[in-house]
Design brief:
Mean pLDDT: 81
Largest sheet: none
Low-confidence stretches: none
Order of helices and strands: HHHHHHHHHH
Distance between the termini: 29 Å
Number of domains: 1
Helix content: over 70%
């Protein structure tokens, strides 16, 4: 791994990372604020209208319990977009983007093995993702404290939630990086990476809105980041193992294919 390259990647993304981190932190706080102010009214509406109750379930989360609200917050499209900027966009451009810009050859002309370059990019992006997941959970913890909800939450379980979230987004990062290592242009890399994310998200949301399709959630990676179960002390070790496997398999492919690729001169 190259420390110089690591600093270069972080410096290049620093402004964007600060803005997205602050937005993620505020979203985490806002979610708990919204829950504390409106959860009772939402529960009353759900009692009066079963259809309304069905559509307040979003993914594996809901607005009826604090753990359900936290789960909903981790699966909200805004969070997916914010973290996806780095986990999907950044990883997909890590190699294919440098390749199209003609800067990859300059980097590899130095005494920097391809595997070291790839692993450095992975570590750099995972560190950003870890920061964003931590900011999200920190915002939720601040919201719980400021809204007097700590009696309903066990904050000691937040580190395990952080690990679960990091593994989830690490899986998307690893897949996107493997795709980036396979193409010379960012278009196909971003397209395939985004498609992988959207298919997983679609399967999770489809099962929450359509009872007969609930089985589709089992095939979504998002379904294996169960904040509610972790907060209830019922974390499933199989979720962590599965997500770790999805991190390692694309990474293994990337480490195999990237050193074997011929990099033609840029057009």
């Amino acid at each position: 791994m190259s420390g110089v390259l690591l600093v270069r990647v972080w410096r290049f993304a620093s402004t964007r990372l600060v803005i997205v981190t602050l937005a993620t932190l505020v979203w985490g706080w806002l979610l708990l604020f919204f829950y504390s102010q409106f959860s009772e009214a939402i529960r009353q509406l759900a009692v009066q209208s079963p259809i309304f109750k069905q559509f307040t379930n979003f993914g594996s989360g809901n607005l009826f319990t604090i753990s359900g609200a936290i789960t909903l917050g981790t699966q909200h499209p805004l969070v997916i977009a914010l973290i996806g900027i780095f986990a999907v966009g950044g990883a997909a451009l890590a190699i294919a983007g440098e390749r199209q810009a003609g800067t990859l050859e300059v980097l590899l002309a130095r005494p920097l093995p391809r595997r070291s370059y790839l692993l450095t990019q992975l570590v750099a992006i995972l560190a950003m993702v870890a920061l964003l997941v931590a900011a999200l959970l920190s915002g939720m913890a601040i919201g719980a404290v400021t809204q007097g909800l700590t009696g309903e939450l066990d904050l000691a379980r937040f580190p395990l939630m952080w690990l679960n979230g990091l593994l989830l987004w690490g899986a998307f990062t690893s897949f996107s990086l493997a795709v980036s290592a396979s193409f010379d242009r960012p278009g196909p890399a971003i397209g395939l990476s985004l498609a992988f994310l959207l298919v997983n998200y679609f399967l999770e949301i489809l099962g929450s809105f359509w009872t007969d399709a609930k089985w589709t959630q089992e095939y979504s990676l998002f379904h294996h980041f169960q904040s509610g179960e972790i907060l209830a002390g019922k974390a499933d070790p199989a979720d962590f193992v599965l997500l770790l496997a999805v991190v390692l398999v694309p990474l293994g492919y990337a480490l195999w294919i990237f050193p074997r690729r011929d990099l033609a001169a840029p057009a």
